[in-house]
Design goal:
The complex is a heterodimer of chains A (about 240) and B (about 90).
Chain A: H1 3-26, H2 37-48, H3 54-60, H4 64-84, E1 92-93, H5 103-125, H6 134-145, H7 147-151, H8 154-159, H9 163-186, H10 211-239, E2 240-241
Chain B: H1 3-22, H2 26-46, H3 50-85
The chains are: A mainly alpha (about 240), B mainly alpha (about 90).
Chain lengths: ~240, ~90
């Protein structure tokens, strides 16, 4: 069919979608307000499980199975990058020259590095208590590490970043997530059910049952995955010559 | 009561997003995307979603621009070398 006929078919489809979209939007609750049906239900159950951060509760308790999928997606994505960004035939590795860094940049990076790393660790550790969690804290910690590349040079970064260890830890973290899920089976409950551990005292580090365990596993997985990902990108940029 | 603030931040996000789309140079676009990440983090914070705001800060402002810059640098080096070889 010609361009005009195609446009006609598209227009019919578009009108249908537009109608449905407007109809759906007219049925939405008003913007803002202090009560939301999903929010009310989630907070109630979250408090029953002594988990202060409702978002972390949702991620690692009722939606723990879905989060397992997310962890697998991240692992697979990084695996794909590692395969694609490896050293190819005809390419060779050259150690990069020592880089000159302006003193203010160096001072800033070395000053902020420990603070940023600590912030990342804190965000992971308090995943079930305050905003943030394994994913957010993991990304913060991983990117914090690369301040060393900005403030010193690539060699300094390489020295404190043994890739094999990070790759192993990445895989182990995914396995740990699975192990916590399987442990629930041995306790007579369904896979990834939050029933193994006591829920503890509300708003303490040891509250929420298995939520902090899964959160920690995700924290380690995301940290290692991002480090490995950036390592491959940096390697392509700095070391590999074609 | 926070609606004026939300409106202002929404306009800011729309403006920055438009700037990101209109910037055609990948290097400059990476920088604009970083600013967009910060704006989105502010928006999510104002909308009372601090978990998402933190994700946006970590990934949108730091990680994504860094990956873009490294990619641009790698591609630039390799294409430069090939043309030099010719």
């Amino acid at each position: 069919m010609n361009r005009r006929a195609r446009a006609g078919v598209l227009a019919v489809g578009g009108v249908g979608v537009a109608f449905l979209l407007v109809a759906a939007c007219l049925n939405l609750p008003a913007f803002g307000g202090s009560r939301h049906p999903y929010g009310a239900r989630a907070v109630t159950v979250s408090l029953d499980r002594h988990t202060a951060n409702t978002v972390a509760f949702l991620n690692f308790d009722p939606r723990a199975y879905d989060t397992l999928g997310e962890v697998a997606i991240m692992f697979t994505a990084v695996l794909g990058c590692v395969v694609l960004l490896r050293q190819a035939r005809g390419e060779h590795r050259e150690p990069p020259a020592t880089a000159e860094v302006a003193p203010p940049v160096r001072r800033y990076a070395l000053l902020v590095l420990p603070v940023a790393l600590l912030t990342g660790g804190y965000v992971v550790a308090h995943g079930q208590l305050s905003p943030g969690g394994g994913f957010q804290g993991g990304v913060v910690a991983a990117t914090a590490l690369h301040l060393l590349y900005l403030g010193a040079d690539y060699r300094a970064l390489e020295r404190i970043r043994p890739l094999a260890a990070y790759e192993a830890a990445d895989a182990l973290a995914v396995f740990a997530y699975l192990a916590v899920g399987l442990a629930a089976l041995f306790g007579g409950a369904a896979f990834l059910t939050n029933s193994l551990l006591p829920y503890g005292e509300f708003n303490t580090l040891a509250s929420g049952g298995t939520v902090p365990l899964l959160n920690a596993a995700v924290g380690v997985e995301v940290t290692c995955a991002v480090v490995v990902l950036l390592a491959r990108f940096l390697e392509q940029t700095v070391e590999i010559e074609g | 009561m926070a609606e004026p603030l939300i409106a202002v931040v929404l306009v800011l996000v729309a403006g920055t997003a438009t700037a990101a789309v209109l910037t055609r140079d990948p290097v400059r676009q990476a920088l604009v995307l970083s600013v967009l990440g910060v704006d989105l983090a502010v928006l999510f914070t104002v909308l009372q979603a601090p978990d998402v705001a933190l994700s946006q800060l970590a990934v949108g402002s730091a990680l994504t621009p860094l990956l873009i810059m490294l990619t641009v640098r790698t591609v630039g080096r390799k294409s430069g070398r090939k043309s030099g070889r010719k």
